[in-house]
Amino acid sequence: MDYSRTVRAAAVQISPVLFSRDGTTEKVLDAIAKAAKEGAQLVVFPETFIPYYPYFSFVQPPVLMGKEHMRLYEEAVTVPSPVTEAVGDAAKAYEIAVVLGINERDRGSLYNTQLIFDADGTLLLKRRKITPTYHERMVWGQGDGAGLIVVDSAVGKLGALACWEHYNPLARYALMSQHEQIHCAQFPGSMVGQIFTDQIEVTIRHHALESGCFVVNSTGWLSPEQVAQITTDEKLQKVLSGGCNTAIIGPEGNHLCPPITEGEGMAIADLDFSLITKRKRMMDSVGHYSRPDLLQLHLNSQPWSAMDNRFSSQFPDQLTNVADE
């Protein structure tokens, strides 16, 4: 594991093209090119950025959100698809690792999904948010432990979590125990106001300190015109503002560049991996500072399925007959 390198990272704060998978994808491809022009070797985008975060579910009651939910199905991303191929091609062309949030459609279900592309365009990881939060449970299904892994990439060992997954200490510890060097965090942005900005600040800085890794965090942003597209109710429009905090944090919990809390922009910083050793020399929470004889994490890393495959191995003929009917 190389701790002598330096990696330039970019966290993108950006607004989607509402209601358009293709339009938002074009913005992603443009941002990848801009990040590469700045010398970035890693670029991180917001939570479920393609086609857009389901803000409608935060301001509409379930009985009224059917139309918008259906529209999200129509614009959601399948994996693989022309969207993932385009992003992979861009990653390869610019030799840059890409972490991208999407609304993934898997037949009749949607998921909050994080994709990690390596600098050669390979899709290293497709993981789904393990527990959607509050209103999100009306939109997305649940992920599983198969996505709680750290992947080896051209820029180091990468882990990723979305939004309030960072409030699940065991989920974070699962990644920490795999010695992630760069943690890629994603939040929706433009929600709840300053309190959400403050909470993100606490969350990402604490994870950097506790894990002894870098945190590259990206949040989305909505313009006033986009907020008006989502709801015409002025009272509800107020809750679709603030809550942005795009930032890059070092292993000692410090900002490595000015954070972005409003508008579109790109936070860029150089990640000196020797700082990981400097931090962990003092406190390695999965090494010399851990007590596995007292406290251990048990992780079910098996992907779940609606069909138990043990049944198919025991009764293959019956399954074949059912499939033929």
TrEMBL record:
Residues 7-273 form the CN hydrolase domain. CDD domains: nitrilases_CHs. Pfam families: CN_hydrolase. InterPro entries: C-N_Hydrolase, C-N_Hydrolase_sf, Nitrilase, Nitrilase/CN_hydratase_CS, Nitrilases_CHs. Belongs to the carbon-nitrogen hydrolase superfamily. Nitrilase family. This is Nit6803 family nitriliase. It comes from Pseudanabaena yagii GIHE-NHR1.
